[in-house]
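Q: I have 441 residues here and want to know how they pack in 3D. Can you give me a structure?
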Amino acid sequence: MVNAISVAPRRGHKSPIPLAAYMRQCLTSPHGGYYTSSQDGRDQFGRKGDFITSPEISQIFGELLGIWIVAEWMAQGRKRRGVELIEVGPGRGTLMDDMLRTIRNFKPLASSIEAIYMVEASPSLRETQKKLLCGDAAMEETKEGFKSTSKSLGVPVIWAEDIRFVPKNPEKSPFIIAHEFFDALPIHAFQSVRPPKPEITTSTTAPQGPPTPQWRELLVTPTSPSSTHTPHSTVPPEFQLSLAKSPTPHSLLLPETSPRYKALKAHAGSLIEISPEALTYAADLALRIGGSPDTPDKKPLPSGAALILDYGPSASIPINSLRGFRAHKAVSPFASPGLADLSADVDFTALAEAALGASPGVEVHGPVEQGAFLQAMGIKERAGQLLRGVEGEEGRGRLEAGWKRLVERGGGGMGRVYKAMAIVPVSGGRRPVGFGGDVEV
């Protein structure tokens, strides 16, 4: 077995590190990261990989997201120029390919698109995306990253490793898709504990009540040699979570950033998970859409939109949600680091707070269940259209099973667990399609 990661490269293997640092190393380290290492033949997606995503299950998913962009573009006045498409965490490029195939049927929108940006940290996935979206077109290196030409629209396709490298232009209208992106961003985990009373007292010391609870960080440490328990295997994983013995810089700062966390601090035993990177991304998306007055991000008129689809609770703070997947099976996230996918529940309320706090020019809709969103977008009707052109029971069965899996709420269905949330310009009451609104013709 190849153990791809040294999780503590500068601290020594016995030093605890934050959970976020562990996740970052496991997923994006250039030396064995799950997404960024060059291992021949590795394909994380699809039935032969470690997990399957909605675009791989049915083409209808990407088609409907393309329709959502069309509807939002129409509702915002059908801009004739300056439209950008941005996808963060684009996987194999399947979703963008399906969206572009749909969008090119709407000529006025297709002709207004000036560039497509793919935010991708993995060189191997970038190459896969390029082959699907650009075919044999040449790829060149640019200051943002890499650039080629879309075979669907004939416009530049530009790759950047981080959203920070995608240019911000207040004159542009960015339409941004984040599908199963936020769940892969590193999280910090904290527990509220009541410190022990001081052991030394004097006769002049006034009686004191129980110590005030404080947040302690859950850190990744090597598994104890005597450990035997693991829910996924008879062999203990290499690492485990351990409660910090004293406050850390993260535990002193991050849980104080929101009233939602502060309200739980007094209740010893409370658990919370926070992803600073997720909040930074949400704020960045909001600024691109709504701008911010009296700053370099000032925008004359809010425009564009962001659609986030991921899994997590609608309103509560995620806890104990870190998970690992390998070959479509749940595995310990602390075993074989770098060889399994890691993800955690998305805190949608925190994303909304970050977006609204970053820009007064946006509003947030949702989250709503993915099933309800796709039903409102017309998934059943689109499936009916496709079924009329499919011959043979096997093909019809695959199509039928695929779209139903995206919307079903029970069993292996994705309709309830996955959620959709939209960041759009302040509109004074208009709701986006899929979130209670209608298409404005």
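Q: Anything worth noting?
A: DSSP finds 13 helices and 17 strands in the chain. The longest strand covers residues 214-222.
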